[in-house]
Design goal:
Helix content is 43%, strand content 8%. By secondary structure, it is mostly helical. Among the domains are: 89-236, 3-Layer(aba) Sandwich (Rossmann fold); 327-379; 387-488, Arc Repressor Mutant, subunit A (Orthogonal Bundle), CATH 1.10.10. Helix 6 (216-226) links the parallel strand 8 and strand 9. Helix 14 crosses helix 15. The longest helix is centred in the last third of the chain and has 19 residues, at 424-442. It is elongated and about 105 Å long. The structure holds one RNA strand.
Length: 489
RNA sequence: GGCCCUAUCGUCUAACGGUUAGGACGGAGGCUUCUCAAGCCUUAAAUCGGGGUUCGAUUCCCCGUAGGGUCACCA
């Protein structure tokens, strides 16, 4: 390759949110730029006013920021080449358009849309591909600067080009036609604007999904007419729906990536997951930080074939990254999903953290754990139980339940204060050490079931040791006393 | 329909002519166990089909087949 500094760009149109497909394209572009110490540009392609959705630009930036895909130039970051928003670069496109007109490479479209549509229908009826260039006006009028402008393909020929992923590609004359450069509303088309901008912005590697392969001959033809050296084309494989029947798209339920944040996915997990759809370092490692990915990323390792989106795997990645989080960071994430009644300054909050970390794959599972049937609901609400519930199903005797609860109560009451530390795991270990021999001797279920249900009042919950450690000494003893009172009533 | 692209377990993938085709997710079974998770162990599961080339093809070539993409004043 040459020694130009690597510049990549992600160029979404502001038509709504970003889904996984778009983000993966952004990610690969970002990784490649960072790996080479180059620049990553966020360019907004808002040349279709009709489809534009209010607020999209900010939303797109939020999504990229969430994933920590920092851009060097963008709508909010001044660039040496001017605005990164295409609607603010109209004068530039017009200038290039005039250059093309002057060189005889462009001409105003003399037909109305209805007329063009008629040509198209005729071609269709004749079962022939519609080509505008077959209807080129014999003599081009001068361009008044507002009429739609068409590119006059200088040379109808077979194009061959190289793609960093797909290798040598080619397409014939049928892929070439006189496409629109400037629309009647004064905006350029994507086909025109992106080529002008990529050139002006020094973009060296264009990464995009494979739907653009078939228009590459048109692009090459335009690069040629403009006298611009084309960038390296890097065609990314599509991300398929989980049933693999088609490309993942918004209509197929592809959701806003920011929704994953709401559900409690970690950005690291999302990045890790997406990096491994369509790329693989060639080793058996799977869990990577973004820094790891930057170090390992290679264009040669990008796949040709599409890969399906698989939420189970994403969930697994999320758990892996939850396990990697620092305590502080885990606490911060967990706090947003915990009920308000648990203050982040409370002992309960600190005691809960290691238990939550052990259990969850997704942060929003925390909300459910404190819901009505949640397994940790007991931690914030004293149990209301029926006597029968306290009885071990294999030996439902009130006397035995009373006896075991009383004994367990005594054993844990004897524990010193240090045993009840806020370190839940070690507190639970102390409590277990106190009760376990007795439980072993009497029958584990016989002892542990009444103790646990006495503490939690729940069918499902953490084990009695962890439950007691969470509740703390006073609350635990109090609940056991209440259970005893119930049994003896 | 024309043109273009793609093809390894259900899914993500490893293999860059020579492996008992490996790993991961998910599945199944087991261990652990008072319940629910987590964790650990074991296991089933793939080279789309047919021709070549080669001593030898997942790998290279051709033809099928299947899937995808694209044929806009959308990007």
């Amino acid at each position: 390759m040459d020694n130009k500094p690597v510049v990549t760009r992600f160029a979404p149109s502001p038509t709504g949110f970003l889904h996984i497909g778009g983000i993966r394209t952004a990610l690969f572009s970002y990784l490649w730029a960072r790996k080479n110490g180059g620049k990553f540009i966020l360019r907004i392609e808002d040349t279709d006013k009709e489809r534009e959705v209010e607020g999209s630009i900010a939303h797109i930036q939020q999504a990229l920021s969430w994933l920590d895909l920092e851009w060097d130039y963008g709508p909010d970051k001044a660039a040496p080449f001017g605005s990164c928003i295409q609607s603010e670069r109209l004068a530039t496109y017009k200038q290039f358009a005039e250059k093309l007109v002057a060189a005889g490479h462009a001409y105003p479209d003399p037909y109305t849309t209805a007329e063009v549509e008629t040509f198209r229908k005729q071609a269709e009826a004749a079962k022939k591909p519609f080509l505008f260039r077959e209807h080129r006006p014999a003599e081009a009028k001068a361009w008044n600067g507002t009429d739609p402008l068409r590119f006059k393909v200088p040379e109808i020929k077979r194009f061959k080009w190289h793609d960093a992923v797909r290798g040598d590609l080619e397409a014939g004359e049928e892929a070439l036609d006189d496409f629109i450069l400037m629309k009647s509303d004064g905006y350029p088309t994507y086909n025109f604007a992106h080529i002008v901008d990529d050139s002006l912005m020094g973009v060296t590697h264009v990464m995009r999904a494979d739907e653009f392969i078939s228009s590459t001959p048109r692009f090459l033809s335009l690069y040629q007419a403009l006298g611009i050296e084309p960038p390296v084309f890097v065609t990314l494989p599509p991300i398929l729906r989980d049933d693999r029947t088609k490309k993942l798209g918004k209509r197929d339920g592809a959701k806003d990536v920011l929704e994953y944040r709401v559900e409690g996915y970690l950005p690291e997990a999302m990045v890790n997951f997406l990096a491994l759809i369509g790329w693989n370092p060639g080793t058996e490692e799977e869990v990577f930080t973004t820094q790891d990915l930057i170090a390992r990323f290679e264009l040669e390792k990008i796949h040709k074939a599409g890969g399906a989106y698989n939420e189970d795997k994403l969930l697994w990645f999320n758990r892996q990254h939850i396990l990697k989080l620092s305590d502080e960071s885990f606490a911060e994430h967990a706090a947003t999903f915990l009920p308000e009644s648990i203050s982040t300054k409370s002992a309960m909050f600190r005691r809960l953290l290691p238990i939550l970390r052990e259990k969850i794959s997704l942060f929003n599972e925390i909300s459910a754990m404190f819901g009505p049937a949640g397994e940790l609901n007991f931690a914030i609400k004293a149990p209301k139980v029926q006597v029968e519930f306290l009885l071990w199903k294999k030996d439902p005797s009130k006397e035995k339940a009373s006896k075991h609860i009383a004994e367990a109560r005594k054993l844990i009451a004897e524990l010193d204060a240090a045993s009840w530390s806020n370190d839940t795991i070690s507190a639970a270990a102390s409590i277990k050490a106190a009760i376990w021999p007795y439980a072993e001797a009497q029958g584990r279920g016989d002892v542990l079931w009444p103790v646990r249900t006495g503490l939690t009042g729940q069918e499902r919950s953490p084990d009695p040791f962890i439950s007691a450690a969470l509740l703390g000494r006073d609350e635990s003893l109090q609940r056991l006393d209440a259970a005893l009172a119930l049994l003896q009533a």
